[in-house]
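Second opinion, please. Pick holes in both lines of this record:
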Amino acid sequence: MLTPREQGDVGEMSAMCWLASRGATVAIPVGSSRNWDLLAELDVRVVRVQVKTSTCSVKDRWDVTLCTRGGNQSWNGLVKRLDSSRFDYLFVLVGDGRRWFIPAAQVAAGWHLRLGGPKYAEFEVERGDPIPGRTRTATPPLQSASDRRGDARAAKGTRL
């Protein structure tokens, strides 16, 4: 299982690869930027890109958290909502590798988005690599006891 920081790094790498495949020159900030994760020169225009990831799916949709709840031990309890005036595009990578590149003006929420339905379908781009690790679902599929244990014959090396 990836840490949140590692998952974010996977998302940023996916965004950089996708943007580069579109002919963009990509730059990342020195240190951490609170409002955007990378810059891209697209068609002689420099744009600020905020990157988000999600491994949480609910009924074939992906819940993407847009607000920040700290992330360190000195958190003061305030929740910071995503401010669409501080970035130009939102790039989202979800657990199965689906990706979206959404103009900031189209981001209708400050707390979270639900992707995979018709609302943001026009902004979905080519699928990338899935996020390594487990994808969480709101209602995990039921598993029989034998599925959880595995097959003893396979573990002992005998033919199935």
